[in-house]
Amino acid sequence: MTGLPDKGALGLGAGGGIFSTICCSLSMILVISGIIGMATAKGFAAYRPYTTLLSLLLVAMGTLMLVKRRNGVCDISTLGREKTAILTIGVSFALVYLLLTDKVLPVLMKTAKAVSMGG
Question: Where residue 1 falls among pLDDT bands split at 50, 70, 90?
Fold first, then answer.
């Protein structure tokens, strides 16, 4: 496939990036909303390597399924023809992951700390 990347590839990569940070972002949202406390939220951070690994595996499986659905088979030659889709998935995953971990999570953490301290 040549030209612009399709929505399926973008969605797959972005979804993987979101899923990989869900252990931390979800816990901060729960603290801010008052559902759990800060001590409980910190416990979720231990699961971050597992959610990141699981999301990478799911993105890889989704990529293979996308290539197979388009071409009827998934082998080295079809992977070569699908360079744009594969690059789109990888780049969108990395951008969403970095955006969430470097920009969004620090803001959520500050807000959650302020809420848990009562101010």
Answer: very low
Q: CA distances (Å), 119 to each of 73, 112, 113, 114, in order?
A: 57, 10, 9, 5
Domain assignments of the chain as residue spans, ordered by start: 8-113
Q: Which of 118, 96, 119 is nearest to 25 (CA)?
A: 96
What digits encode the pLDDT tens for the residues 59-78? Answer: 888 888 888 887 777 777 77
Whole-prediction pTM value?
0.72
CB-CB contact of 94 with 11 (8 Å)? no
Give dist(CA 33, CA 64) in Å, integer: 38
* Number of CB atoms found within 10 A of residue 65's CB: 13
91: tokens are 């780049």
